[in-house]
């Protein structure tokens, strides 16, 4: 796989998605409630659809061409270490205090 081409396509789709999001936010924050018409609503719907389509395309591309690294295989669990007063001065001190 050509990593540079993948990165370029991914970056371009991401920038287009951010552009759609910015347009959508700008329209939703600046619409005059006295001037709501079909054109504005249709424009908001188109921006939302563009955003959803681009986000879906990004996810699909990541799933097919940028898979997560395989999880490491876990071996058998190690035996727990037995703490004795000889290895742990703190443990030795707590035993002496409790006696």
Task: Write a structural description.
The chain has a domain at 3-65. The chain has helices at residues 3-30, 38-65, 89-98. The chain is elongated. By secondary structure, it is an all-alpha fold. The longest helix has 28 residues, at 3-30. The mean pLDDT is 87.
How many helices? The count is: 3
Ranges where pLDDT stays below 50 over 5 or more residues in a row are none
Mean pLDDT level: 87
The helix/strand class is: mainly alpha
- Secondary structure tally: strands: 0
> How many strands, which pairing sense, and closed or not: the largest β-sheet?
none
State the share of residues found in helices, binned by percent.
55-70%
State the shape.
Answer: elongated
β-sheet strand percentage: under 5%
Distance between the termini: 68 Å
Helices and strands, in order, run as: HHH
Radius of gyration: 29 Å
Which labels suit this protein?
99 residues, 67% helix, elongated
In short:
The chain has helices at 3-30, 38-65, 89-98.
Task: Explain the layout of strands and helices.
Elements (H helix, E strand, L loop, with lengths): L2 H28 L7 H28 L23 H10 L1
């Amino acid at each position: 796989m050509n990593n540079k081409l993948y990165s370029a396509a991914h970056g371009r789709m991401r920038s287009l998605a951010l552009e759609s999001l910015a347009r959508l936010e700008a329209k939703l924050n600046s619409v005059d409630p006295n001037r709501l018409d079909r054109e504005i609503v249709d424009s908001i719907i188109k921006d939302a659809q563009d955003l959803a389509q681009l986000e879906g395309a990004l996810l699909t591309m990541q799933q097919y061409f940028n898979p997560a690294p395989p999880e490491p295989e876990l071996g058998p669990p190690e035996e727990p270490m037995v703490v004795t007063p000889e290895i742990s001065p703190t443990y030795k001190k707590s035993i002496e205090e409790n006696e």
